Amino acid sequence: MGQAVDVLDAGSLLAAFGALGVAVVLFAETGLLVGFFLPGDSLLFTAGLLCAPGAGGAVHLALPQVLLAAAAGTLAGSQTGYWLGRRGGRALLARSRARKLHEGAARAEEYLARYGHAKAIVLARFVPIVRTVLNPLAGALHVPARTFTLWQITGGLLWTLGLTLAGYALGSSVPNVDRYLLPLVALVVAVSLTPIALEVLRARRRPATSDPEEQHP
Q: Where is the VTT domain (predicted)?
C-alpha cells in the first residue's frame, strides 16, 4: 500500500515519520554505533526547509516540534553513547567490522588529543561518523561526565538548531523552495563531508612532508 521508507533519504524519512523521525534518527546516529550511516545533516536541513511557509510540498512540519525533537534526539543519543562507552569500553568498537567506523574512531581520538575535551566534543557534532563514535569513545577514555554533558549539550544545540533554522530561513525567503530540495540536500551533504575530505588529504600529505626531516636530522 505505502511506499517503503528509505532510511538514507531525508525526504522519505520526514514524509513517513515527521518530527518523530528526526528524534529517532538523531538518537541512533549519535547514540548507537550502528547509526553512523544515517543522514543527520541533510535531515535537519530538510526538516527546517519543510517547516517554512514558502515550502509548498506535500509534507509540512511545525518548526517548534522539529526543534524540540532534534534537540531531544541528539542530546539523549549522545548521553546514551557516552554511558555505553563507559560500560563497554573499546570492546564496542572492536566488535564492528565497518572500516569507516574504525576510521571515525581514529579521527575522534585525534580530535580529543589535539583540541581537548570541550572543543573536540563540540566540533565532532559537525563531522559525520565522528559525531557517532566520539560519544562512546569519550566514555571509554573516562572523559569526566560533567565535562562531557556540558559540552555535548552545547555542541548538540548548535548543530541541531543551527542547521534546522538555516533550512527554515532559506525556505522562508525562497518561494517554492521544495522544487530545489534534491540539489540543496546534495549541497548540505557535500559541505558536511568537507571536514572528512580535508582530513584524508592532510593524512596523505603527512608522510611526504615528514620524510625530509627524517633524512636530515
A: 38-168
Q: How many residues does the chain have?
A: 217
List, in order, residues 6 or more apart from 207 with CB less than 8 Å away: none
User: How far is 81 from 31, CA to CA, in rounded Å?
Assistant: 4
Q: Which residues of 41-80 are buried (b: 16+ CB within 10 A; e: fewer)?
A: bbbbbbbbbbbbeebeeeeebebebbbebbbbbbbbbbbb
The DSSP line for 91-146 is: HHHHT---HHHHHHHHHHHHHHHHHHHHHHHHHHTTSTTHHHHHHHHHHHTT--HH
Q: pTM here?
A: 0.77
Q: Record the cell numbers describing residue 149, joined without a space.
A: 554533558
> What's the CA gap between 66 and 166, in Å, rounded?
13
